[in-house]
Amino acid sequence: MTTPPKAKIYTRTGDKGTTRLVDGSCVEKFNPRVEAYGTVDELNSYLGVVRASLINQSTFASLDPLLEKIQNELFNIGSLLATEKEEVFKMLPAITEDQIVFIEYHIDELSTELPELRNFILPAGHPIAAHLHVARTFCRRSERRSAEIAVKDDRYSLSLQYLNRLSDFLFVAARWVNHKAGNSDVLWKKT
Predict the structure, then answer these.
(1) Could you report how far apart the first and last alpha carbons of the chain are, in Å?
(2) 32-70 confidence digits (pLDDT tens)
(3) Please, which residues bridge with residue 19 across strands?
(4) pTM (2 d.p.)
(5) What whole-number distance in Å separates Cα of residue 65 and Cα of residue 16?
(6) Residue partners of 91: CB distance under 8 A and separation at least 6
(7) pLDDT digits (tens, 9 = 90+) for 83-113
(8) For 61-90, what is each residue's pLDDT tens digit?
(9) DSSP letter string over 14-54?
(10) Do residues 39 and 81 lie in contact, with contact meaning Cβ atoms separated by under 8 Å?
(11) What are the structural domains of the chain?
(12) Using CA atoms in the order 105, 109, 114, 117, what is the torsion angle rounded to 10 degrees?
């Protein structure tokens, strides 16, 4: 038998359906906060899949540093959602208006290369575009779950705005990938 690691990954806290928030509070795993930061974690993990698909794709390489920055900021949002206590909340990295403006800037920058959108489109096309569309849907779910917290606590208003803007960015990024790959948007056919 090998020597166990110094810090164990398992705590057994969750064996009875509870977990600890960043601030040390013990809550049920179905608590709205846990649902909110859990969906942000799902989104963050899926952005890791998107980034992995960008490896050896020089055409789309400019997305990788943006997505890495976004992943770090999503981690910050998750930690904010995972705390209620003001004294702990103040110690965590904040989401700022500048970060939201940064995303808006990149939405506008990518949009300048795209044809005007006059129809609804299907989440399809290049595989990376399809991954970005999936990430967009994860982002929308994160936004919905985070709204449950934000409507009762205005400390989360910028996090909610960030997620809202991020879903727009992911939509535009998916269109941009299709455009760069020479694929047209796949239009919704009202049948």
Answers:
(1) 64
(2) 999 999 999 999 999 999 999 999 999 999 999 999 999
(3) 27
(4) 0.91
(5) 40
(6) none
(7) 999 999 999 999 999 999 999 999 999 999 9
(8) 999 999 999 999 999 999 999 999 999 999
(9) GGGTEEE-TTS-EEETTSHHHHHHHHHHHHHHHHHHHHHHT
(10) no
(11) 15-180 (1.20.1200.10)
(12) 20
